[in-house]
Design goal:
- The chain has about 400 residues and is an alpha/beta fold.
- It contains 12 helices and 15 strands.
- It has helices spanning about 25-45, 55-65, 65-80, 110-125, 150-175, 195-200, 215-220, 225-235, 260-265, 290-300, 325-335, 365-385; strands at about 1-5, 10-15, 50, 80-85, 135-140, 175-180, 210-215, 240-245, 250, 275-280, 285-290, 305-310, 320-325, 345-350, 390.
- The chain has an 8-stranded parallel beta barrel, surrounded by 8 helices.
- Strand 10 (about 275-280) and strand 11 (about 285-290) form a beta hairpin.
- Helix 4 packs parallel to helix 5 (about 150-175).
- The longest helix has 25 residues, at about 150-175.
Length: about 400
C-alpha cells in the first residue's frame, strides 16, 4: 500500500510474511497465493506491499538461479504484490515448534550473516518495483547479549562495514539503493535506541548512509522508551530510521493481581522468547528473558509489566491486559506526521498469531487473512489521520 505524504514523497505500508512458515522458494510462492493475495483482495486494493521474509534456503535458491528469481518476480506481479522491504532478521527455522534463542543465530560476528544479508540486498534490488529505487532490509541488532566481548564487537563492525561497501556496489551496478536497519530488541547487544546510536556512531562503526535502524514499536514499548525522545535522539545523531515495524506489546498494568497473572500465563508459550520488562520509580528498566521467568518470581511486580509478545494491532487482549498500541501511534506520528517523513518504509509485523492463547488463534487461512487485513486497515487509518493520502 502506498501513501502520499503532504511533502509529496511516497510512504510504503506492508505486512511482514514471517507470519507464514515457508522456508524454501516453493513455499514462498505458495504463500503469495494462499495468504498475500487474499489479504490484498480483502482490502480492496489492486496493489499490496509485503515485507518479504526469505529464509536461508529460499535466498540461496534465488541467488543461484536467475530463472527462479524471475519466477518469484512474476508471481508477485501476477498477484498484485510488491516488495520494497525484506525482513532479514530470522535466518531459518522461524516456523519451528521452538524458536527461542535460535532466532539470533547466526549473528553479526559470523561471516554467514554477512553473506546471507548480502544475498538479500541483491535480491531486493531485483525485486523492487520498476518505479521504486530504494529498498530496505531489517536485521538483528548485532547479537544476543551473551557472549559478546570487544573482539566479537570488532568482528561485527567489520562485517557491517563490508556490507556497506557491497551495498555501494549494488547501487553502482543496478541504480537501486538498499539500506540495512539494525532492529533493537530486548535482551540483545543492542536493545535500545541509545545503544543503537552508540553501536553505529562509535569508533569503527559502519557508514550511516547505508546502515541505520529498524524501529520496532513493540520492542520500543517493551523497553519503556518514549517514542519522541528515541526518534529525536536518532535524528540528532544522524542515524537514519531505515524502516519501522508497526507492532504492539503485551501490557499488564498491575502484575501483582492474581487475575492479571493468570491472564499473562496464557501468553507464556514455548515457541518464541517473550522478554518481559518493568520500570522502577527511578526510571531504570529491569527484566527477564521470558514471560514464564517473570511469572515465576524473576521480576518485581509493583509496577506495570510489558512483554515482547506481538499482539494483533486491531484486537488487544481482553481486560485485565491491554496492548501498547498508543506507543505505536505516538511513534508513527513522530516518524511520518511531521513536515517530512523520517522513514518511508512501514511494516506491520505480527508474527505470533499461532502463538496466541488457543481461543484467540485463527483456526483457518481465511481467519488469518481476515486478521492481517484488519491490522493493515488500522494502520491505514492511522496514516490517513496523520494527513497521508492512500494511493491507488
Amino acid at each position: 500500500m502506498r501513501f502520499r505524504h503532504p511533502d509529496g514523497s511516497t510512504v510504503h505500508l506492508a505486512y511482514c510474511t514471517n507470519v507464514h512458515p515457508a522456508e524454501d522458494l516453493d513455499g514462498v510462492v505458495e504463500q503469495l497465493r494462499l495468504y498475500c493475495e487474499p489479504v490484498r483482495r480483502r482490502l480492496g486494493r489492486d496493489r499490496l506491499g509485503i515485507g518479504l521474509w526469505l529464509a536461508r534456503d529460499a535466498a540461496r535458491t534465488l541467488s543461484a538461479d536467475p530463472a527462479q528469481l524471475r519466477r518469484l518476480r512474476t508471481a508477485l506481479d501476477t498477484r498484485g504484490l510488491e516488495v520494497v522491504t525484506l525482513n532479514g532478521f530470522p535466518y531459518q527455522g522461524f516456523g519451528a515448534q521452538e524458536v527461542k534463542y535460535r532466532v539470533y543465530t547466526p549473528d553479526w560476528t559470523d561471516p554467514e550473516r554477512l553473506e546471507h544479508t548480502t544475498h538479500l540486498a541483491r535480491l531486493l534490488a531485483a525485486l523492487l518495483p520498476d518505479d521504486i529505487t530504494d529498498g530496505s532490509v531489517s536485521t538483528l541488532p548485532l547479537a544476543w547479549r551473551t557472549p559478546f566481548d570487544a573482539g566479537r564487537a570488532r568482528a561485527a563492525r567489520r562485517h557491517l562495514t563490508a556490507l556497506a561497501q557491497r551495498l555501494d556496489a549494488i547501487q553502482e551496478l543496478t541504480g537501486r539503493s538498499v539500506r540495512i536497519g539494525l532492529e533493537p530488541e530486548p535482551g540483545c547487544t543492542v536493545e535500545t535506541t541509545a545503544q543503537a546510536i552508540e553501536a553505529l556512531t562509535g569508533p569503527g562503526g559502519p557508514p550511516l548512509e547505508r546502515i541505520g535502524v529498524c524501529l520496532d514499536t513493540c520492542h520500543l514499548a517493551t523497553q519503556f522508551e518514549d517514542p519522541h525522545t528515541a526518534v529525536d535522539a536518532l535524528t540528532a545523531a544522524g542515524v537514519p530510521v531505515v524502516k519501522a515495524q508497526l507492532s504492539a506489546a503485551l501490557h499488564a498494568e498491575d502484575p501483582a493481581r492474581s487475575d492479571v497473572r493468570e491472564a499473562l500465563a496464557a501468553f507464556a508459550e514455548p515457541r518464541f522468547l517473550h522478554q518481559t520488562r518493568t520500570r522502577d520509580p527511578e526510571g531504570a528498566v529491569h527484566g527477564t528473558d521470558d514471560l514464564d521467568q517473570a511469572l515465576a518470581g524473576g521480576l518485581g511486580d509493583t509496577a506495570p509489566w510489558r512483554s515482547h509478545f506481538h499482539v494483533p494491532l486491531h484486537a488487544p487482549p481482553e481486560p485485565p491486559l491491554t496492548s501498547t498500541l498508543p506507543v505505536l501511534a505516538d511513534a508513527l506520528a513522530r516518524l511520518v506526521g511531521g513536515p517530512a517523513p523520517l522513514t518511508r518504509h512501514l511494516e506491520v509485523e505480527t508474527y505470533t498469531w499461532q502463538a496466541l492463547p488457543p481461543e484467540l488463534r485463527p483456526r483457518t487461512r481465511d481467519r488469518l487473512a481476515d486478521g492481517i487485513a484488519a491490522e493493515l486497515a488500522l494502520a491505514r487509518d492511522l496514516l490517513t489521520d496523520l494527513g497521508l493520502k492512500e494511493l491507488p
